[in-house]
C-alpha cells in the first residue's frame, strides 16, 4: 500500500495533524447541526434563518474538505466517521425536535464562542510547524468570526 | 410555538415518519463514509475512486435534504445529529486509516446490498400511506441501485 | 380541424380530464392570489414575504402549464380564462387593499389545507385511470405540501 | 399598518392610479388568454403560434408586474384577482375549446386594436401627472404595437 | 468477469428486463427515424419540422440511455446494435428519399399510436415487479404522449 | 487639452449641468450611507436589511455613473470627490456607530422623501432643455420611488 | 397580401415614418463606415480604435434594427438597401484605403456633429405625433452623444 | 503610415485580393438584403422567415469580417462602403416595400445560385496562390450551400 | 415536391454522394456500438471507459449530422435507417452481453484501422469533385485518428 | 441593542480597529478619486485609462467592504461617511475639471507610494494582535502594489 | 509498452513528423516569449500590449497542444522540453529585462516574418503526405498572419 | 524608460527577487514537463493521467503568472525564456519519447519532493522581507503538496 510522505518533521507532524484532526471534528459537527436547525426551525424568521443555516453548512463542508485533504497531504489519514464525531465533539448538543427561530439564533451565537477560541488556538499551535496549515486554519477563523458577527447582530 | 399540521392520518403518520427517519440516517451515514473514503483512498485507481466518491456524497446529501424536509412537511421534526447517526446506523463501519482502492470498491459494493434492501422496504411500507413519500424513496432507490451497478462493474 | 386522440378509454378520459380541469383552476388562482399578496403586503417582514410569494407564483405557473398541457395531451382542451377561474375557484378570496405580513402568512396557511386535500383527492382519483397524470398531480402535491410546511413554520 | 405615501398630488394620484389599475387588468387578461390559446391551438402552424404565444405571455406578465408595483409605489394597492379581471376586462372573450391556428391569428389581431388604443390613451392621460408612469406605459405600448405588427404580418 | 447482482427476484427479473429490452428498441429506432426525417423533409414547413424532429431525437436518445442503464442496473446487459433494431423493431418503416412536410407529420402521427400503446403496456407489466422501472417507463410515456399531441395538433 | 463640445445651447447647458451635478451628489452620498448602514445594522432583521442595503448601493452607484457620464457628454466635468459630497449634500447625516434595524428603516424612509422631491424637480427642470437628461433622471426617480415604497412597506 | 394597420393618424404617420426612414439611413451608413475604419485603421492606437469601432458598429446595428421594426410597426416598410444608403446618406464619405488612427478619431469626431443634430431634430419632430418613436430616437441620441464625448476625449 | 507587408508574391497578391474584394461585396450586400426582407416580410410564414433571415445576416456579417480582415492581413485595405456595394454588387435587387413570405423564399432561392457559383470560382482562383484564403472561401461556400438547401427545401 | 439543385456536375454528384452515403453508415454504426459498449463494459477501468465511450458517441453523432446535411445540400437525400445500417455496415460486430474493459479497448482499437482507411479513401475520392466535402471528411478523419491514438495508448 | 463581542483582547482590539478604520478611509477615498478620474480623463489614451480606473474602483470597493465587515466582526462599527472621508483622508486631492491622460497616470502613480506605505504599516501593526486582519490587509497591499507597478509601467 | 500505429506510409511519416516537431518548437517558444514580454513591457501603451500578448500566448498554447497531439496521433512522441526549445528554436532571442512598448511591437513584428515563412513551408511540405496535418498547419498560419497584420498595424 | 519603484528595502529586494526568480523557473519547467508527459503517456491509465497532467499544467501556469507579476511589482523584471529554464532548472529531466503511465506517476512523485522543499525554503526566506510574497509562495506550496499527495496516493 502506498504511503504518503510527510513534508513535515516528526515534531511538526504531531502538532499539525492533531490540530487538523480536531478542526475537522468541529467543522463536520457544525455542518450536521446546521442542517438539523435548517430542518427544524419555526417562527416568523423561518425563511431568513433557514437560508442562513445553509450558508453555514456550505462553508463548513467546504472547510472540512480542505482541512481533511490537508491532513492527508501531510501524511495522516482523516477521520470523519459519525462515531468519531459523536464521541469527540466539543460543541454543545441541540435537543431533538422543533426549535424556535430566536432559540436558533441564541444557540448558534452560544456555540461560536468556544468554536472560534479552539480554532484560533489551533492556528497558533501550527504557526511555526506548518505555515500552510496555519493559513488554512486562519481562513476558517475568518469565516467563523464573520458568521459569529452576523448571529450576534440578529439577536432580538 | 407554531405546530406543523400533518396532511396524513395518525396511522399513516406513524408509518411514514418512521420510514423517513430511518432513510435519513442511512443517507447521512453514507455521505460521511463517502467522504471518509474520498480522503483516505490510495492505489492506482486513486483519482477515479476519489471523484466517484464525491458523486456518491453529493447525491446522498441531496437526498438526505429532500427526505428530511419531507419529514418536516408531514409534521415530524428530522433528526440528523452525529450521536443519532452513530447510535442507529445499520451500515457496516469502515476502519480508520488509509484504504486501498480495491478495498474501497469491495467495501462499498458490500454495503449497498443492505442499504438498497432497506430502502426498497421503506418505499413499499409507505406506498399506501403516502404516495408522495413513496415517490421520494423510489428516487433514492433508483440512484442507489445505479451506483451499486457501477461499484459492481468496476470490481477487479 | 384536427382532433386530438386520447390514449385513454372513455371512462378514464372522464375521470382524468375532470381532475386536471379542477387542478388547473386551483393553480391559476393560486398564482393570481400570490401576485396579489406580493404587491400589497406591508409590515416588517415585507421583503421575506414579497420574495417567498414570487416562488409560490413561479411554481404555480409552472405546474399550471404542465397540467394544462397534459389535459390537451389526453384529448381535452384546457380552460384557464378569467371568468372560468372567477366562477369555479374554491379558494377563499383575499380582500382588496394592503395586507399586513402576518395576515398574509395566516391567509396562505389557511388556504393550503383545502388546496392540498383537493389535490390529493384528484391524484387518487386518477391513479388507476392514468398513472402519468397521477405522477403529475403527486408532484404538485409534494410542492404544495412543502410550501404549506414553510407557511406554517413562519407563523408568529 | 404602514401606509405608503404617494409622491403625487391628490389630482395626479387619481388620474395615475386609475390608469394603472386599468392597464393591469388588460395585461393580466392578455396573459391568461395567451396561455389559453397556447394550450388549445391546432393546425399546421401549431408550433409557431404555440411558441409565439409564450412570448406574448412572458411580456404581459413582466409588464403587469411593473405596472402593479408602480401602483403600490404611488400609494395605491394593486388588484389582480380573478373576479376583478373577469368583471372589468374590456378584451373580447375567446370561446372555450380547440382553436385553429388561423383563428388564433385572427382573434389576437382583432383584440390588439382596442388594447393599444386604450393603453395609448392611458399613457397620454398620465403624461402631465406622472412622467414616470407615462414612461412605463409607453414601454407597454411599444411592446404591444410590435406584437400587433407581427400578428398582422402573419395573417394568411 | 464481474457479475451484476439483480435487486429483483427471478420472476421480476424476467418481466422487467423484457420490458426494458423492448422499450430500448423502440426508442433507438425512434431516434434513427427522427434523424432520417430531419435530413430529408421538404416543403413550406421545412424549418419548423426540421427543428421539431431534433427535439424528438434528443428526448429519445436521453430516454434510451436511461432505459439501457436501468437494464444493466437490474442485471441484464442492454442490446442496442443496428441488427437488433433492424430485426426486432415494431415501428413502421419510412421510405428512403425526400419526404414532404405534411407527410412527415402524417407518418409520425401514425407511428406514435402503437408506440404509446406498447410503452404503456410495458409500464403496467413492471408495476408490481419493479416500481422504479415503472416510473422510468411512465416518464417515457409522458414525453411520447406530449409529442403525440403536438404532432396531431399540427396536422393540416 | 481636448475640449468636449456641448450639444446644448448655453442656456440649456447651464440648467442641465446644474441638475446633473446635484443629482450626482445625492446619488454618491446615498451609496456611502447605504454602505454605512449595511455594515452597522443590528437587530432581528439584520440579514434582510443588510442585503436590501446592498441593492440600494448597487443602484445608486450605477445611476451615479450614468449621471456623471451624461455630464461629461454635455460638456461639463463631473465632481464626485469626498469633500464635494461632504460640503454640498442635502441628505440628513447618520450618526456613527451601531444602528438598530428599525432605526435603519426609519432613517432611510425619512431621507427618501426629500431625495425624491429634489430628483423630480431636477427632471422637470431639464425637460425642455434636454430630453435625454430628462429620461435619465426619470429612471433615477422611478428606482428611488420603488425603493421608497419598499422601505415604507417594511416599517414595523 | 396582409396590410399593416398604423396606430397613427395620417398626419402623424407622415411625420413619423419620414423621421424613421432618415434615421435608418444614418444608422446603417454609420455601421458600414465603422466597419470600414475597423478594417483599415493603422497606427500605435490600432487595437484601441479597432475595438472601439466594433462597439460603434454593434450599437448602430442594434438601433437600426429597432428603428426599422418601429417603421414596420407603424405601417411603413423599411428601406435599408445599399443603393438607398448610397444615394441618400448625409454622412461625409471616408476615402478608400488605409487610414491612420489619429485620422480615424478626427473623421469620426467630425461626422457625429451633423449626425447628432439630425437625430435630435427627428426626435423633436415626432414628439407630438408618436411618443414611442420619440423615446426610441432619444435612446439613439443618448448613445451617439456618449460616443461623441469619447471620440472627442481621445483626440490627441 | 505603417504599411502591411504581404506574405504573398505579387502575382498571388493580385489574384487573392481581387477574390477577397468581390467576396466582401457579395457578403455585405447579402447581409443588407437579408435585413431588408427580415423587416418587410408578410404572410403566414412571417415568423419562420423573419428568424431564418437573421441567421443569414449573422453568418454573412461574420464571414464579411473574416474576409475583410484576411484582405488587410495579406496587405490590401478592404472596401465595404455603401457606394462601393451599390455600384459593384452582382446580386439582383429586391423591390422596396412589403414582400410576401413565398416571394422571399423565391427571391432568396433565386439569388443563391449565382452567389454560390461566384464564390466557388473565387475559392478555386486562389487555391494555388494562398491556401489560407482558399480555406476561408470554402467555409463561405459550405455555409451558403447549406442555406441554399434550406431555402429550396421550404419552397411551397 | 421541391427538388434540391445540386451545385455539382453529374460526375461529381455521383462520386460525392456515394462517399457521403458510406461515411454516414460508418458514423451511425460507430455511435450505436459506442453506446452498446458504454452500457455493458465491466472491470476495474469501468468509469474511465464508460465516459470515454460517450465522447466517441458524441463526436460520431455530430459528424453524422454534418455528413448527412452535406448530402442533402448537394442534392441527395440521406439514409440512416436501422435496416440500412445493419445491411451495409462494414464494421465488425460486437457480441451481445457484458464485455470486459480490456476487451472494449481491444475491440475498439481493432475497428478503427478499417474505419480510418475507408474514411481517408473517401476524402481522397471527393477531393477534385467537391473540396467542401473533402474538408468535411478530413475533419472526420482527424477526429477518428485522434481517438485511435487514445485507444491504442491505453491498451494494457 | 445587541452588542458584538470582540474575539480580541482589549489591547489587540485598540490596535486592530484603528488600523482597519484608517484602511477603510484610504480605500473609500481611492474609489471616489478613481471614479472622478474615470469621468474626467481626456487625451489619446482616454479609453485605456478610462477602463483601467474602473478596475481600480472595483478592487477598492471590494476591499473596503471586506475591511469594514472585519471591523464589525471584531466589535467596532465601521465609519465610511462622506464627512469622515473628507476630514481624515491622507490622499492628495485631485483638482476639479478635465484632466489629461498623462496627468492621470502621474497623479495616480504619485498617490500610491504613500498609500502602500501606510497599508504595509497597518498590516505590520496588527500582525501579533490579529493574524486574520493581517492576512486581509496583506491582500490589500498585494493588489495595491500590483496596480502601482502598472501605473508606473505606463508612464510615458 | 503500447505502440501507436501510424496511418501514414514511412515516407509520409518522416515528412509529417518533422514538420510537426519544428512547428511545436516555434509555437512553444512563441508562448514563452509572449509571456516574457507580457511581464516586462513598460511605456504608455503598457496595458494594450500587456493584454494583446496574453492573446498571443493563449493562441500559441492552443495550437501547440493540437500540433503535439497530432504528432502522437501519427505515431511520433512530441518533444516540448525546455532544453529542446532552447537548443532548436529559430526565433530571435529577446534580451532579459524591461522592454519599452514600441520595442515590443518592433520585436514581435520582426519575428513573425520568419515564423510565418517557416510555418507556410511546413504546411506545404505535408500537403501530399497528410492533408489533415496540412489543415492544422494552415490554421496556425491563418492565426499567425492575422496577428502579424495587427502588430504591423500598430507600429508608430 | 519608466523604472518600477520597489516598495522593498535593498536587502529585502535581493532576497525576494531571488526567491521569485527561482520559483518562476521551477513553475515554468513543471508546466513544460507536465505537457510533455500529457502528450506521451501510454498504458491502461492513459486517460486518467492524461487529464490529471492538464490540471498540473493549468495550476503551474497560473502560479507562474502570479509569481512573475509579483517580481515585476517589486521592481525586478521576470525571466521565463526557454534558455533560462533549460540552463537553471533543478528538476530532473524526462527522457524524450513515449512514457508508460506507471513511470509517469513514479517520475512526478519523484520530482515533487525537491520541488516542494525548494519552494518551502523560498517562502521561509522571504517571510521577514516581504509577507506578501510569502503568502504567494505558501499558496504555491499548498497546491504542490496537495498534488504530491495525489501522485503518491495513486502509485501502484
What does it look like?
- Twelve copies of one chain form a homododecamer.
- Chain A is mostly helical and 156 residues long.
- Chain A has one domain: Ferritin, core subunit, four-helix bundle (Ferritin, Up-down Bundle).
- The first copy, chain A, is built from five helices and two strands.
- Chain A has helices at 10-40, 46-73, 82-88, 101-125, 131-153; strands at 41-42, 99-100.
- Chain A has a two-stranded parallel ribbon with strand order 1-2.
- In chain A, helix 2 (46-73) packs antiparallel against helix 5 (131-153).
- The longest helix of chain A has 31 residues, at 10-40.
Summarize the structure.
Chains A, B, C, D, E, F, G, H, I, J, K, L: It comes from Jiangella asiatica. With 156 residues, the first copy, chain A, is mainly alpha-helical.
Write the topology of this structure.
The structure is a homododecamer of 156-residue chains.
Chain A: H1 10-40, E1 41-42, H2 46-73, H3 82-88, E2 99-100, H4 101-125, H5 131-153
Parallel strand pairs in A: 1-2
Helix pairs in contact in A: 1-2, 1-3, 1-4, 2-5, 4-5
Structural class estimated from helices and strands of chain A: mainly alpha
Note the overall shape of chain A: elongated
Question: Could you state the oligomeric state of the chains shown?
Answer: homododecamer
Give the CATH level 1 class of chain A.
Mainly Alpha
What is the CATH architecture assignment of chain A?
Up-down Bundle
What is the makeup of the main sheet of chain A? 2 strands, parallel
CATH level-four homologous superfamily name of chain A:
Ferritin, core subunit, four-helix bundle
InterPro entries (chains A, B, C, D, E, F, G, H, I, J, K, L): DPS_DNA-bd, Ferritin-like, Ferritin-like_SF, Ferritin_DPS_dom
GO molecular function, one term (chains A, B, C, D, E, F, G, H, I, J, K, L): ferric iron binding
Domain Ferritin/DPS (chains A, B, C, D, E, F, G, H, I, J, K, L): 18-153
Family (chains A, B, C, D, E, F, G, H, I, J, K, L): Belongs to the Dps family.
